[in-house]
Design a protein that fits this description.
343 residues, alpha+beta, BirA Bifunctional Protein, domain 2, seven-stranded mixed sheet, two-stranded antiparallel sheet
């Protein structure tokens, strides 16, 4: 065997094959063909057994020199492949700072918040102030001070989220306790609204939710009558829904007002002519109201012979649904971006 000739051909073939290789996997495969256990160098070393003693030393030395030269060539190629891979990764990470940035969608206030602010703005313009109170209440503020008897269904476990076994602590079922707290701290006359989150054990459906938002109002002065109540509510409704809206008071019952009313407005969808939304009645209920019950005034040491007042309460989601023609209250809590963007 002419090892020198074979050596030069092996080197030449190796360099040609390496030129075509562009990734590390192909590189490793080729390296195994030359330097692996079944590679060309191993095959050449196997020829030692066929040589006499005088030729073995020279042949073995030549094969080792070839092995070292091949190793150097592979190391050079490996360095180039690693550098190429690094450059490609840098290109992937490279950022052209001159390219305009991606447009980010900006958040916005929820429809509930916007509706609350709109209601607040109207009543602030009518001389009311905004009062707030705790969401965790005791039963005296939530029920007793508001003339709600022990037998009243609103006290039952199926309606109220109680936080203690003796039912003394609870999640407020309305924002009326804020009115009680305000009267205890202030002397009449006064005019406040109390917006906030409230809790009731309602089944979640298209018109009910166990967590929702209310705005309740209280006006206390001398010689207050139902006509004052209707006047304020009529101004409120017209500012909120338009000047053509009329207000209707229907007799109802609430333990903390007497007389009590369900308050309707003429249907904003059909103009009072009758449609599917108003169930062909021409009217849509929006809130409850009435004159403050004398027992409520007694609870806060107001003289009911001297002072009178009216109170009202509405669901913010209810108002938002009417103003924006939203059929299902659950839409407010789905976090659906398309719903929010289209409002």
């Amino acid at each position: 065997m002419d090892l020198i000739t074979d050596k030069e051909k092996i080197i030449d073939d190796l360099k040609k094959e390496l030129e075509r290789i562009n990734d590390l996997q192909e590189f490793q495969n080729l390296k195994s063909q030359y330097l692996g256990k079944k590679g060309k160098i191993k095959s050449l070393m196997n020829n030692l057994k066929n040589l006499d003693e005088n030729s073995k030393k020279e042949y073995g030395q030549s094969v080792n020199e070839l092995k070292n030269e091949i190793g150097i060539i592979f190391n050079e190629k490996f360095t180039k492949l690693i550098e190429k891979e690094r450059e490609e990764k840098e290109k992937e990470k490279w950022i052209d700072v001159t390219i305009p940035g991606a447009h980010r969608k900006l958040g916005k206030e929820s429809l509930i918040t916007n509706t609350r602010k709109e209601i607040e703005k109207i009543f602030l313009g009518l001389g009311f102030s905004v009062a707030e109170g705790p969401e965790i209440e005791n039963s005296w503020y939530n029920f007793d001070a508001l003339n709600t008897p022990q037998w009243h269904p609103a006290r039952e476990m199926q309606d109220t989220f109680y936080l203690s076994t003796d039912k003394s602590k609870l999640l407020r079922t309305h924002t009326s306790p804020v009115q009680v707290r305000t009267m205890l701290k202030n002397s009449p006359p006064l005019a406040i609204i109390s917006p906030g989150r409230v809790y009731r054990k309602d089944e979640l459906d298209a018109t009910h939710s166990p967590v929702f938002h209310q705005v309740e109002g209280l006006y206390v002065d001398k010689n207050v009558s139902v006509s004052h109540l209707k006047m304020y509510l009529e101004v409120f409704a017209q500012k909120l829904f338009g000047n053509k809206v009329s207000v209707l008071l229907r007799p109802s019952y609430f333990p903390f007002t007497e007389p009590s009313f369900e308050v309707d407005i003429s249907c904003i969808f059909c103009g009072g002519k009758g449609c599917k939304v108003c169930k062909n009645s021409g009217w849509i209920e929006i809130l409850g109201a009435g004159l403050v019950h004398p027992n409520v005034f007694k609870s806060v040491d107001y003289d009911p012979e001297k002072w009178q007042g009216f109170a009202f309460g509405m669901g913010i989601e209810r108002i938002a649904m009417l103003k924006n023609n939203i059929p299902d209250i659950r839409e407010f809590y789905k976090n659906d971006i398309s719903f929010i963007e289209n409002l």
